[in-house]
Amino acid sequence: MKKIPVVSIVLYVLAGLSIIYTFWTFFNCFDYISELANSGQLEYEGSSGDIIGYYVSSCAQYFVYAVLMGTLGWIVQKMESKPLVQAVSENNGQPKNDNNNEGTENDEYFEK
Fold first, then answer.
1. What angle separates helix 61-79 from helix 6-38, to the nearest 10 degrees?
2. Measured between alpha carbons, how far is residue 31 from residues 23, 51, 55 in Å?
3. I need a labelling partner for 13 at 20 to 30 A (CA). Which of 39, 58, 62, 98 fits?
4. For residues 30 and 51, what is the distance between their CA atoms, to the nearest angstrom?
5. How far apart are the C-alpha atoms of 82 and 18, rounded to whole Å?
6. 20/29 Cα distance (integer angstroms)
7. CB burial class (10 A; 0-12, 13-18, 19+) of residue 15?
8. What is the structure's pLDDT at 40?
9. Which pLDDT tens digit goes with each residue over 56-97?
10. Ramachandran region of residue 43, left (φ > 0), alpha (ψ -120 to 50) or beta?
11. How many CB atoms lie under 10 A from the CB of residue 3?
């Protein structure tokens, strides 16, 4: 079993907390708008744009943060590999050549 990097775990936890906060904010917005409608201060028919804007300004940013932190955690987890020192020492200090081509057209450029 591969060990998950600490940075990824922290990002996953923050993403989870952000999702929870998004739902909490969404339900608070719903309650607030319902209260306004029940008291007669807000009508749904002419205010749909304002209602959507209120939801987006209150909730969407936290959802975007959660997606970004979850994606960053996944990227960090996928990038986790052998330490660079160990990878270089296994190849006697030479970079690994995966395609087994003896030479390429770019070799002349890099040798200069």
1. 170
2. 12, 12, 12
3. 58
4. 10
5. 31
6. 14
7. buried
8. 87
9. 999 999 999 999 999 999 999 988 865 555 555 666 666 666
10. beta
11. 7
Give helix 48-55 / helix 6-38 axis angle, nearest 10°.
150
Token duo for residue 44: 């749904």
Q: What are the boundaries of each domain within the chain?
A: 6-99
**Residue 96 contacts residue 67 (beta carbons within 8 Å):** no
Cβ atoms of 76 and 18 closer than 8 Å: no
Residue position matching structure tokens 């079993």: 1
For residues 49 and 47, give the distance between their C-alpha atoms in angstroms, rounded to a whole number: 5
Mean pLDDT (the chain) is: 82
The Cα–Cα gap between 24 and 27 comes to 5
Q: Are 14 and 69 in contact (CB under 8 A)?
A: yes
